[in-house]
Specification:
alpha/beta
Length: 251
């Protein structure tokens, strides 16, 4: 098994934040709805007795707040489901890497690298005797098309749907590699073998991507690519330890 150094991910924290916000909004909506109902009832009585609509206007304004918060709750529910799907994909990748790689491989999940004012968040990072591997996971569904050099790709979630633009993760991986290389240079670490990959975790996803050095793979293919890779040299534990230390301090 690989040496798992970090487990919590940014999606875990995002899910916790969404659930916390949903809990607060859920209670707030009930309180607001009760206040609106009271204002509406009192407003109807005053309108009938005194022909004034002040309370009814306040009730209408309050109803708008209730509607806005109810819509936010709906959006939060959708976001929570999306994040949960992403968490499932990342967890599957972590389990696969942990099971297939031996103890000479160090695995960091949700690794944030900071160099000066530049930072990069990497879903999975493997430091191994044959290189460093950055894995960007996407739980996208449907069919993905694009070019490695393009800023955006297109995603068709279901047959007949209009293609939707999605950001190009290959560009994201290249930035991650640049940031990691800057971190290694800052620590005077000579490590030329840094490789990046994009992983589609959904088994139903298909793609047609014009690749340019950053492969797009399924998780099991990524493991095989890591194990097969032969770089410029082999790295001993004495080479790996400074890299791991630099990464842990940079988090």
């Amino acid at each position: 098994m690989a040496r798992l150094l970090t487990e919590e991910t940014s999606l875990t924290r995002k899910r916790q934040a969404v659930l916390a916000e949903t809990g607060v909004l859920g209670k707030l909506v009930w309180v607001e709805a009760a206040v609106v109902a009271l204002l509406a009832a009192a407003g109807l009585i005053r309108w009938w007795r005194q022909d004034t609509t002040t309370l009814l206007i306040l009730a209408a304004v309050g109803a708008l707040f209730v509607l806005a918060h109810a819509l936010k709750l709906r959006d939060n529910d959708r976001e929570a489901k999306r994040v949960q799907a992403g968490l499932k994909g990342e967890a599957e990748v972590t389990r696969l890497l942990d099971a297939k790689l031996d103890t000479t491989h160090y695995l960091l999940n949700d690794c944030t690298i900071k160099v000066g004012r530049t930072s990069a968040q990497i879903d999975h990072l493997v430091v191994a005797p044959n290189g460093i591997f950055l894995l960007e996971t996407k739980n996208w569904r449907g069919h993905i098309e694009g070019d490695a050099a393009a800023a955006q790709w297109s995603q068709v979630r279901a047959p007949g749907e209009v293609p939707a633009p999605v950001h190009n993760p290959v560009i994201q991986v290249r930035r991650q590699i640049d940031t990691l290389n800057a971190l290694l240079r800052r620590h005077a670490i000579d490590w030329p073998d840094v490789r990046g990959m994009v992983l589609f975790t959904s088994p139903r996803t298909t793609w047609s991507i014009a690749e340019d050095g950053i492969p797009v793979l399924r998780p099991d293919q990524a493991v095989e690519a890591i194990l097969r890779f032969r770089g410029t040299r082999s790295y001993a534990e004495s080479d790996i330890t400074p890299v791991v230390n630099a990464l842990m301090r940079s988090r």
